[in-house]
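User: Some background: our group keeps a shared notebook of sequences we're curious about, and every so often someone picks one and asks for a predicted structure to add to the entry. Today it's my turn. The entry only has the sequence so far, pasted here. Could you supply the structure so I can complete it?
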Amino acid sequence: MRKKKAAVASKKRSSRPSNGMVDFSYANVSYQIDPTRRKVYQRWIEVETAKTCLIMGAWNQSQAQEKRAV
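Assistant: Of course. Here's the predicted structure to add to the notebook entry:
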């Protein structure tokens, strides 16, 4: 009986949505960034690789500037 309780407890932990998406505006266009997967989406459609690199670079720079300001 203890095994079943342990299994149920682990399911509850893993079922939590861990959405690390970040909204970011680049060139007056709104994008959603998934930093864990290093993917960029516009209206939930993945953006091409070259543009992803530009947007991720701009987002990383903005994150670094915010950390320095604090």
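Suggested note for the entry: The chain has one domain: 18-69. Residues 18-69 form one domain.
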